[in-house]
Here is the input.
Amino acid sequence: MSDPHAPAPGNGPDDIWLGLDLGTQSARCLAVDGTGTLLATAARPLTSHRTGNRHEQDPATWWPALADACREALTGLDPHRIRGLAIDGTSGTILLTDTHGTPRTPALMYDDGRATDQADTVNAAGAHLWQRLGYRTMPPSWALPKLRWLLDHDPALATGTRLLHQPDLITWHLAGRQLPTDTSHALKTGYHLLDDRWPHDVLDTLAVPTALLPDVVRPGTVLGTVAPDAADATGIPAGTAIVAGMTDGCAAQIGAGALTPGAWNAVLGTTLVLKGTSDHLVHDPAGIVYCHRGPAGTWLPGGASSSGAGVISQYFHGENLDVLTEQAAAQDPDAVAYPLVSTGGERFPFRAPEAEPFILGDTPTRAAEFHAYLLGVACLERLCFDYLDHLGAPTGGPLTYTGGGARNTYWCRLRADVLGRTVHIPEHADSALGMAVLAATSAGTSLAATAAAMVRPGTELRPAPDRTARHLPAYHRFVTELTHRGWLDPAIADHALRRAAQ
Here is the structure.
């Protein structure tokens, strides 16, 4: 019998692949070998600034932080074994630089919502294309409305500038010159994923200069190699291959190995993000779910909620979460909370800017209140899958759990019970690992084969049918309340409740 973790052909067991991850809170470097064995990881903190609906970072901090993380992670590793790297960033984060790569604007982050008026303009100009691409409209947080906002507020930025997505600034530093961006990061800037080109008819209508747009390639393409100056700064050997990456959600999906049609990865961090694989482009009339291009002709549908584990840090900051979890598990109450994190409303599995948190049922103790939020996340997750099923997305394949919330075993079991389906928690799965796997495809193997060699399946959790039945009434109350408040479309609620009855 073959070893499921044997390296894919062309990817030797002693080869080292690097995954670089630029998040909201940290810059990280991870090193694995050709079998997916974790060799080293290191991170440096990043800070951002929020004012109302604005969210910015200073892009000048990204390179020093990532370079420091790389130097620490690579200390003691044989540089001759390092073969390639790929980078992910937050989806929709952009900035403008001069022609030498020096930032001329702050980075407008993935959830910056200032471009409300520009989103209306963008949606009017590109309505035919956005409909064809399956997402129908662009919200203000997407990159193209934010680009138009930057140009509207400083017309001088229209000349002598370059548009960069978050990882593009790092690849520029690594190579010593501007490299192409990837289709995954370019999606929210309006890139035409079906025709593989910038839609210049739409962009001309929006007065977006062609000269500031980067070239675009598919993820996994070798972009260039690490230059000597960058090698000195990072410890990554000069000549190491730089491979085009993907957004953080797609990177996490690769790291979880969710790459066959019907497979899904649920990332529970501050918010809940679902990424799956489909054999067809999923169209969402509400524009909530959108698709990236996947490997071998597949599509990667997904959605990002404004709810998730962030409610735990909001409402239980400084408390002993292990003790609360133990007490909550022992009590197993049936109160359920809507776990909204954002003050800007909900965006998946429904769009409701006016949405706000609530609790259904009695929570006489802190443990009961804590459990209500755990159960609320589980119910929201089930509603996400019911919504995806309503759209015709395949949802019945393998399911993996990743993200900080996956470290709470009881919470994972509760989520599996509410869903009524088996889940896996991979041994090592995150965005940085996904980028190391993607980098390894530069050895000449498919992404699916490389992930099969490098992603370890980890722990399996099977649902308990009696507990699934016990929690379905809470799910029914949850869905009914969302509908009663006018946030959830009754047709979606009916579909969800019919599935629960089955």
Remarks:
- Residues 268 and 403 are 5 Å apart (CA to CA).
- The longest helix spans residues 366-391.
- Confidence is low (pLDDT under 50) at residues 1-8.
- The two ends are 39 Å apart (CA to CA).
